[in-house]
Design brief:
This protein is of the alpha+beta class. The chain is built from 14 helices and 23 strands. Helix 5 packs antiparallel against helix 6 and helix 12 crosses helix 14. The protein starts with 12 loop residues before the first strand and ends in a 10-residue tail after the last strand.
Amino acid sequence: MNQNKLTFDTENLGVDWVGFNIEGSIDLEPIANYLFELLGFNSTITKKINGKWKSESLNYDKLNKFQVSFRQYDYNPEFKSYWVGTKVYFSGNNAAHFYKSIKIQPLNLDIFDFQRTSLARFDINYLTELKTTNQTESIKTFMTKSCQKTYAKSKRRKAAWNINRKGLLLTIGSRSSSNYYRVYQSNNGLKFELEIKNKGIRSFQDLLFSYRIEEFEDRLAKYFYYQSFELLNLDTKYTNWLIHRFRTLYPKQRHSCLMTSYLKKYSQRDFKDQEKIFNLFRILSFLKNKKTFVETSDYKILAGQVYYSFTFPLIEFIRYIGMNPKSHSQRTKVLNILTTLQTLEPIIQNFDDHYFQSSLIVPAFNIKKKKNKWIVSVALAKELYSYSYPFQFSTYFTTYKYNYQFQVKLQIIQAISVQSLKKQFYVQDFLSQFNVSHAKQTQIKNVIIQTLDELKKNQVIQAQIEIHKTDNSLIKTNIITARLLTKTKIIYFYEIMQYQNLVL
């Protein structure tokens, strides 16, 4: 597991509400003055007078841009209100500014009377931008499926969506519960917000009051992610940010990594071009998985592009991709693999009216003999080596003996690389490209089955597979056979998201 601490800044998480409860009767003037003079907050107080809530100003300066609110509760036996105290809350931009301020300068707990003050509410959110505005129907579908997911787990938990004056709004949970989740449209996109109150936020309180900000943000960010995974429909583009963050933060260390974002442009080309991209996956997988044999030198910058330099014994790479290091012909083939990496299309990083940058993936490599060993040195674009999306595969995916094995594995990689948790493999279309005997078709089907079984064994996909036949019938099974794949149109399989380790 990645041991780096999460922060609100690195995770692009916002703070939308900070609230405190102060028990008992208290003189609010020192607190209001402290917030006014030191942090630049105007303040108001709301009290109940003759049965009605009324507000009045405590401190005000027209130059101040931020506001804090005090709400005072007195003993009221008529309404069975026995809690006496004051709620202090910062909302919206006020909360964001307050939290940013106390990160720089710790909260004065003497003024707030630490013994009587508790953290009552903390709202954390993530905003994902929407590239197009006309997405109402697809957002409704996402919200409906999220409600269904909630009710499938608990009939008692509330979940509903509606349309208000600002747009679509999804709510999960009760306003009085410890966790209340909202998803709503904003001017910039779709905002995902978790309101944590009462017992839910108390477990984080000591971290904030003792100024252990790094631990506070790390635990709260993981808690936000965990609740988001638990409550939201993940099979949608609107939660791609959540899935991507999980994959980046919690890679499956026991699997080697194959990058697939560069795949689409090569997927419809001839065998030689497809083999080039597959070989790129192999070298990336080797460099990430075999750090025992790989030495990394300092990076270099060429025309704004960062390149990492790697050095490794050629024999180790030959073994890694399942070839015989003693075979001269296979050693020659591996050299050709490395050479063809330089013929891959460049990465187009930026292209507009003001700026253009194109970078080679492998600008240079050489092979030298040192002490009877051939040593490879290769420079690789940082973006490809550092890119953690989307999956980790076992070394099964780096080897093949026959062309049809290669094509099956590449097709499965392409199928599983999509952002959605639901993956699809078009069996009929794939098999139709092979003009071979019935026995050979069976061999190809068996490779498909073996490849899916490998993903299941390594807990990349769920055990149950959905098979859609050409007659539109549907079969759900944990065990696939070659016979079962006869007259199969599409196979659907689902990625496993092991997000329980988000909360530590």
